[in-house]
Design goal:
about 210 residues; six-stranded mixed sheet; four-stranded mixed sheet; 10 strands; alpha/beta; 6 helices
């Protein structure tokens, strides 16, 4: 399979698989898909049964939240109640890309997804496929990594198949992940941005973007 890319040729190659994933998610399924970071488990965010499957597939603790992937920054207000000024600055600087932003959650987002917290993590990935799936469904999809909890994130479809087996309904092979590092997670729900998980985007990068804006 070709390496993960946003090129037209790769989109044509994987287009049928992308539409298959859309159909599976519409019917409560779970698919393992390539992103711009690592492979992820995609399910419709508002399908309680599918979300439960994501937790079971990963063996994920109920105390851990699941972030969401969306197709564009314009969709954020569907899932967030109070969008801070810093969001617009960081979205313009780093989206699409490996930055997950945590903000106060809206009523559409279940407490199950957020592990009972009043915040939700959102990201627009720099990969056409998860954005396409979200846009085709008209809603966010889960964006947690496609691996067993506690084990390293996986950067190839083969590794996902070896570890998760038939637990998922579909594995889309988009080649090796271009940047096999999980996204940076920044909390914007407080008085100042706070890094919750380090990634390729550093706190210095975020500070610089805010300062320049």
């Amino acid at each position: 399979m070709p390496a993960t890319s946003s090129s037209v040729s790769v989109q044509e190659t994987l287009g049928g698989r992308a539409e298959e994933a859309v159909g599976i998610l519409r019917n409560g399924g779970v698919a393992a898909i390539p992103t711009d970071t690592v492979y992820g488990l995609a399910a419709a965010f508002d399908d309680a049964g599918a979300v439960e499957r994501v937790f079971r597939i990963k063996g994920r603790s109920e105390s851990l939240a699941i972030p969401l992937l969306i197709d564009s920054a314009d969709s954020v207000e569907l899932y967030v109640t109070d969008v801070p000024e810093s969001f617009g600055i960081l979205a313009r600087a780093f989206w699409p890309g490996p930055l997950t932003m945590v903000m106060p959650k809206g009523n559409l987002v279940s407490d199950r997804l957020t592990a009972g917290r009043n915040t939700v993590g959102l990201r627009v990935p720099n990969h056409w496929l998860p954005r396409h799936i979200s846009r085709a469904l008209g809603k966010a999809i889960t964006g947690t990594s496609a691996n067993l909890s506690g084990s390293p994130s996986l950067s190839t479809a083969k590794a996902v198949e070896d570890q998760l087996g038939n637990a998922v309904d579909l594995v889309i092979d988009g080649g090796a992940a271009g940047v096999p590092i999980s996204s940076t997670v920044v909390d914007l729900s407080g008085d100042a941005p706070t890094i919750l998980r380090a990634g390729n985007i550093t706190f210095e990068d975020i500070e610089r973007a805010v300062r320049e804006a």
